[in-house]
Amino acid sequence: MATTTTATKTLRVISKTPFKDNTAQLQDLTEDAKSKLLYFSPETIFKVTVDPKIQDQHYRFTLADGQKINGKTTWFVFKDHVKIE
Length: 85
Prior knowledge:
Blueprint: E1 9-13, E2 17-19, H1 31-35, E3 38-40, E4 45-50, E5 58-63, E6 74-78, E7 82-84
């Protein structure tokens, strides 16, 4: 059985955007949920592995090298707000 390796990539934020637990649209979130979102500014860079499937216009990604944000390693981000290199 062949194994696949996932290459580490760079995720570069190009528009201020939140990292989310799911692919819900911002307008569908409660005010409480919106207040808990983590926003990142343009030119913020992370090393990530990326799920090859885009889900509801979002990338699902996992932070590489043991990085965590608020104790989590896997997040969703709107695909048009980041560049994967």
